[in-house]
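Can't paste images in this forum, so I'm doing it all in text. The chain is below; anyone willing to post the predicted C-alpha cells underneath?
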Amino acid sequence: MVKNYFTLFCIIVIVNCFSMRAQQDAQYTQYMYNTIVVNPAYAGSRGVFSGTLMHRSQWTGIEGAPETQTLSINSPIGTGSRVGLGLSIINDKIGPVNEISSNVDFSYTIPASENGKLSFGLKAGIYLLNVNFDQLEQPESGDTSFTSDIENNVSPTLGAGIYYHSENFYIGASVPSLLETKHYDTPTATSSNLTASERRTFYFISGVTFDLTYNIKAKPAIIARYTSGAPSQIDFSANFKFYERLTLGVSYRFDAAISALFGYQISDGLMMGMAYDYDTSGLGRIGSTQGSYEAFLRIELFKKVKRVLTPRFF
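Text version of the structure:
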C-alpha cells in the first residue's frame, strides 16, 4: 500500500517538475551550520577554514523518500584578506530523481560599521540531473512520457548573495541559482514537449545572539525562501548554547514541521549535531512518515597563535 501511494506521489512530483512548478532546492533544518550552500557571500566569514558534512533523511518510513548529502568547505584567503572562497557539493535523491550540484563560491568583504562587515558573493558551477523511470510502477495508460530516462543531463548554475554580520547579528539575502535553465526538452509520442527547468529560489536569513546568563546564550533565527510556482517557506528557530559547548533548540516550519535541534562543540575545531522533524503536514497526520532526521559534522582549522576558545555561534 505504501509503495502504491509513493508511486503516485513520485508521478505527481515529476509531472510538476516537468511543468516547471516544483520547489527544487534541497531542504535543511540546521541551515545555520550550512549557510554557504544557500548564500555564497558567507564564504570565509568565520575567519578560518571550515568544512561541513551533512546528511538528511526526509519522511522516513516512505519508500524512495528524499535523501540529501552535502559537503561544503570555505575559508578566507590569506591573513586579513577580504576574499573568501568556498566549494559545495550536494547529492539530492527522491524516488527516481537524482540531482547533483557542484559549486564554487567567491566572496568579497568590506567594513560596514565599527563592528560589522558586509560581504558580496558569487556562486558558479554545474547541475547534473538523472531520472530513472524504471523505478516507478507506471500506469497502463499508453503514455510514453515516462519511458525514456534522463541521463547525466548537465546545466550551468550561477548565483549571488549579500551577507552582513557582526559578533552577535547577521542578515543576508541570496539567489543560489539565477539561471532558469532547461535540463531536458524533447518531444514525445503523446506530448509536444517534456521539460524540466531550474527555477530561481530567493532566500532571506537573519539571526541574533545575546546572553541570557553568563553561561547561556540565545540565538533566535529565521530563514525564508520563495520559488516561483511553489509555496513560500518560513522557518523560525530558537537555539540556546550552554557553557560554550552544548546547543539545544527548537524550530517551526510553517505548515510543515516542528523540529528539535542538538549540537555539541567537541573541541574548538570540531562540532557535531542532529535534528529531528515531526511532520505536521498531511503526511504526518495520516501516519505515513516517521519524521525526518538530519546529522552534521563541522571541522575547523585554527592557527595556533589564533586559537579560538569561544567558537562562533553562526
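The CA atoms of residues 128 and 154 lie 5 Å apart. Residues 1-9, 11-23, 187-192 have pLDDT under 50 and may be disordered.
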